[in-house]
Structure formats: structure tokens, C-alpha cells
């Protein structure tokens, strides 16, 4: 699909996904939102809770430090525990230091005093933020995420991740949302491949995806047309229906 | 976690995951299986149905062509349609050509003649396999996957992917499966962080993960201990229970 939309990557930091213990929810949630606001998600990576792996992935993904895409959204590895090494890795990747952020500390202390929660050194670790970052509010549990360079660093717990995404989205520079149209065909992919290839060649500005499925023992195919111009998508859909005698 | 186990990556090829249309099933399925046979999954990537993106990802991931890990399992982008460009990209990445594979053709024709399915040029495209690859059988729909270098190239349709994984697993060189033990603590992560950090420092050969959750309005934490030696995992669990007065 031809587009001048901003590009993005998602970086999930989490041994629990790599071990098969947890099935990703956060990348799927954010992918749908980005698609809806015209930010072109081009890559997702999952790496271990490992300093070097996080630094390398950020460097490869964020244009601000020599990587490939305009923005990177990270999930996981921030919080109070020993294996929450993301903040330190981010500071390294962006060549800055890390210290207790007074505003983050204030947000967390305000919540803790309201809830009668004791302030401990472990809890205060969650206010350690790379110098120069701006905070991403967290209505769910107070400890904020943060943005630095082209990266937006968020928590892995799904409810907290969603709360941070909600705070962050209005601040992003959106693009033009794609129009998408799905045509269901109750024939196997191989029967419609030639027609599809011909229409795809006539509409190089669109993306035409073909997603085979199996239902009640038979094979079918969902054809998904995507593009930035609604009229073009409708034209391609008409051409496809014509070609496939639908 | 210290380990000499073979390492692996999963590469998902799929616009439909990046657009938020589909939530991944295949990486999650395979991650659990790899963990169970001692193959250390170190990275997952999702890239678009794009020739350059696929070649770049394979080159970065497969040690056989200069990448980082011992094996790469790919899912998606093989099949009869215009956007199924994986096989060509794989041939390029491994410096080989692509042609109709006689054995693949035979497997498919055998099934088609049994089912009375017509043999068309579109269908025969599914027998295009990089020269030098070995086939991965597909009990579900006949069109095979294939292995080349350290890569195992499989379909994206979950039922077909699973069938290929089943055929492939007995051929892999397994490692020593990790032992894992989960301790549920009904306290927020920040309250147990110090104890956890101390135990982690005493057991550098293990991986200690801390996974906060929210249930019935309260916060809790699952502590996951993983290692190759069961006795060490039990020792660390005892030390943790002691530290946290469980």
C-alpha cells in the first residue's frame, strides 16, 4: 500500500512470551489502534528481559537513534522488580543517565498517600526515568511510562499498558487511516489466485491480502483490500468481484 | 538462565498481524513446544509481506547466513496467491534459485487426484521450492513447507502450521528442557521486590521472572523460577518462600 503515513514498530520485552507462558495481548491491541489513526505499523519484535537485546532492538527500530521507523512503542520490563531492566537499557540506548524523576515521584507519592501505601526504596525505583524523557500517565497504578527519542516506553501488564496507550495516543502525530474492505469467497485460495494477481497488478497503490481459512471441512478465502483512497478500494473490489464472478 | 541449549527465533510474515486484523496464534503455539524440548526461543519478529523485509529478517536471525540464532521458524506467506512472496525471498536470502520441486509436486498431485481437484498453474505455484531445501510434510492440505540453512519455512494458516510443526519437531536437535516453578503471591510486586532481588543475586544460574496481575481489584504477583537443574530451582523456591515469609 502506497502511503506517506508515519511508520512504527512495537517492541515487546518479555521472557514470558518467549517461553510460551503468555500469549501477547498488547501488540494486538495497539496494532488495531495504530491502524485506525493512520500510523503504519511495520514491525513487531519480542526480545528477552536482557539489557543488550533491548538496546540492540531500540537502535535497530527507532529512527531517532539510527533505526528504521518513526516511532517505537515498547511494552514490558518497567516496574519495581529485579528483572525490570528496561528503563536502564533505554537510558543507555539514548545516551542519557537515569535518576528519580521528581514529577513521577510526586504522582506516585500522591497515590500512595491516598491509599495509605508505605513508600519504600523498591517502590521508588519505579520513579527512575531516563533524564530528558517526558512521562506517560498511568491512571491504573500511578507508576508512569515515558517517551524519549522516538520511543514510548510502557508497562507489560495489559490493563496498565492500555491506560498508558490511552494517555499517549492524543499526543501522537497521526496519519491518514486506511480504508479496508473484506470480500469472503467460499473457494480455496488456489482457485482465485490468478484473478487476484491480475487485479493486484492493476492497483499497485493498494494492498490486496488473501487469507485462507478452513470452515466445516471446506476451504475458503478472505480477500482484504486496503488503501488510503476509498474510491480506489471500491474500484478494486468491483474489479475483483467481476473477475471472480461473485 | 544459563544454558547451552540451541537457540531459535520465530519470524511471522503477515500484514494481517501488523494491521491488527489477526492476533497471533502460531508463535504462541510454537513457543510452548520449543520450551518443552529445550530449544531456547530468543526472539520473535513480525514483518510485512515484503520481499526486502523478509530477506533482511532472515539474514539477521539465521546463524547459517550470518544472523544471531541456531534456527529460525517462519510462518506465513507461502501458498498460491500473489502476495505469497516468502519462498522467493527465502531463495534470495540463501543465495539459491527457486523451481518446481518434483517431490512437492508429486505430493500435491497425489492429493488432488484423490480429491478430484483440477491441477492449475496457480496450484502448481505451491510446489515452487528453493533449490537445495528439504520438504516439511503437511498432512492438512498437501502443499509442503521446507527447510533450508537454519530456517524452517511454514504456512500461516494455524491448522496447516500445526501440522507442519508436528512433522518437523522430531527432526530437530533438542536441548535440555528447563524446569519451571510458579509461586503465586497475593501482594503487589513492589512489596516483594527486595526479597526477589536478593534471591536472584544468589541464583545467577536461574531466571526469576516477576509477573504482576490484577484480580478482584487487588494486585498480586506470579514469581516464575526457571532453570535446567530441578534441585537448584527447588532451592531457589525455598529461599524465596523463606524471604517472603510464605
TrEMBL record, chains A, B:
Q: Which CDD domains match?
A: cinA
**Superkingdom:** Bacteria
Return the Pfam families for the record.
Answer: FLAD1_M (PF24102), MoCF_biosynth (PF00994)
Residue ranges of domain MoaB/Mog in the record = 9-175
- Please give the name of this protein: Competence/damage-inducible protein A
